[in-house]
Amino acid sequence: MNKFWKASASRNRWEMLQEAAVENLIRLCGLSAILFVFGIFLFVFREGSGALTSGQFNLFDFLAGPEWNPTSTGGTRFGTLPLLTGTLAVTLLAMAIAVPVGLGGTIFISEFCSPFWRETLKVSIEFLAAIPSVVWGFIGLMVMSPLIVALTGAPIGLSVLNGGIILALMSVPIIASIGEDALKAVPDAYREAAIAAGATRWQLRPCEPHLSWGD
């Protein structure tokens, strides 16, 4: 009996050591990620500190300057206004496309699809969300750019429209996946209460097979 208790205590001690080691490893990984971010920040700050302390840096010109040409031999210019406005324009266009499409896809998958098609479409969306941004950039450069030139007659296809469409295509799978998980987390009691209050099929899909919309 004593041998049994000793073996059990030894096994429990070994399991506790393993659990502590895994917890410390996870904690170390989390702290290392934070340290890496701070390291990148310090490196960038160290490399750019010369421009900040030289007396030639002007915050207003940096934020509102119309030109960005840091490698010019005749005079460097660090105006970020075109970069900021371009980023804002692409983001607004992408959200105008991605939010309606993503929410519509979310509602369709969560409330109207059969179980087979729901799982199939959800797996497909997860695959789309896993495509690297480099691949999307290549698609924008090699596919969307010639297509925009051919359809709009623009002199160049690398435009705000191209960036907005590609960013929307990158965002739709994430919006649809997160939205579907959020709708699935709605308690069944809320759905049953909505059905009892007279909700139609377009307002809510029945959560139980035995529930009838005519009842």
Protein model, in words:
- The chain is mainly α and about 220 residues long.
- The chain folds into two domains: about 1-55; about 80-185, no CATH class.
- About 75% of the residues lie in helices and about 0% in strands.
- It is built from seven helices and two strands.
- The chain has helices at about 1-55, 60-65, 80-110, 115-130, 135-150, 160-185, 190-195; strands spanning about 70, 75-80.
- It has a two-stranded antiparallel sheet.
Strand order, biggest sheet?
A: 1-2
- Listing every helix as H and every strand as E from the N terminus to the C terminus, the arrangement reads HHEEHHHHH
Number of strands: 2
Characterize the biggest β-sheet: 2 strands, antiparallel
Low-pLDDT residue intervals, each spanning 5 or more residues: 206-215
Structural class from helices and strands? mainly alpha
Principal-axis shape equals: flat
The percentage helix is over 70%
End-to-end separation in angstroms reads 65 Å
Strand share of the residues?
under 5%
Oligomer: single chain
Question: What Rg, in angstroms, do the CA atoms define?
Answer: 28 Å
How confident is the prediction overall: mean pLDDT?
Answer: 80
- Tally of distinct domains: 2
Discrete helix count: 7
